[in-house]
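[audit] Reproducing an earlier prediction to check determinism. Same input, same settings, fresh worker. If the tokens differ from the archived copy the diff job will pick it up downstream; this log only records the rerun itself.
[audit] input (430 residues):
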Amino acid sequence: MSASSVSVSPPRSSYGRGARILSIGIATTGLVTFAYFALAAHALTAAQYTRISLVWSIMFVVASVIYRPIEQLLSRTIADRRARGLGDRHSLRVPLLIQGAFALAFLVVALALRDLLQNDLFDGAAALYWVLVVGVLAYAASYFARGFLAGHQRFALYGALVFLEAMSRLCFALAVVVGIASGQTAVALGMAAAPLVSLVVVPLFFARRDPPTDVDAVKQTEGGLTLRRGFGFAAAVFAVMVAEQTLLNAAVLTVAATSSDPALAGIVFSVLLIARAPLQLFQAVQGSLLPHLAGLQATAGAAEFRRAIRVTVLAIGGFALAVALGLLVAGPPVVRALFDIERDLAGGGLALVGLGMGLHLVAGTLNQAALARGQAAGAALAWLVSAAAFLWWMLSPIVGDQLLRMEIGYGGATALLCALLAAVYRRGSR
């Protein structure tokens, strides 16, 4: 059987249905995670809770940056092969090697920085240090499973995985509240155990398998995923993740380092939650969008590909405009009440953050289009340029009010990012 005779079929699961399933799963997961920290705050002292929050923040940023590239690589590669009629016969060797290399690199760095992490950040708590190390390593398997399930468009299992992860973590905090366990170590152990417990959903994938595909046809069209190409894709997505974390965190860090007002960094963080919350939910859309676009790129042609992007961008635009208008009209009193902020807030500045959030979501959509088309390097360059511009702006004294500087800078950086990614998208369309 020749490669040309391999049957081609469109993706079997719809993007809309997958996005809805993942949105429900991740939204519920967010509520459960909020409950975990609420219980932890109730069960622990303020100092202990601060250390728990610090472990979580480091773990979340590190795992997102170093493991999401392989999630995206798996999602795109598997979806593309399935759309071309190659079924489930694909090699996982290259993604496994790259994921293992990222995990090993983290372990080496974590061991080298043990004194800094354990003594300076965690106040000598060795248990918290090992929770961080074990948890980040465990997330290597969790993110690999997410990419595998997304590529096969098994979004119900994907949603179940992230939900079970959050629920198992919650159980540790609940055990401390009811008196079964005690102390910050017991609460923290949930962060290390959760990604491992969530993997129990993976065997359910193998309960229903597609019919086997002709092995010779697969070999002839395997074409693609060499270690060099796979690592190149993962490195580009790694750069995207670093740049995105810069857009979300650089303002808080620069304000904390340079402001004489100790409360200002917290206010900047709270205002940026306007962007963080929708971006967290948009991960669900991204999880289903990339395999959908990869399938369209392989089978349906440019028109359907552009239609999927257009529908997503229009939906995001309407949502962002509604959020920005609401923030302009009623944002200051609402945000001040929610986060107990004493200083005055400007509705125009909050609206800028709302518009920046929408531009950030549009950029995420165009980024997925670039990844589906094999333009990962161009997308990474766009993200890095925008992140560097935002960091320069936050360190410049052009605008004296640092909160206003963040609001203007975030809106401007995301606008620049959208423009650069739109150029990459137009080049891919041609």
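[audit] rerun output stored. Observation attached for the diff report: The radius of gyration is 22 Å.
[audit] end
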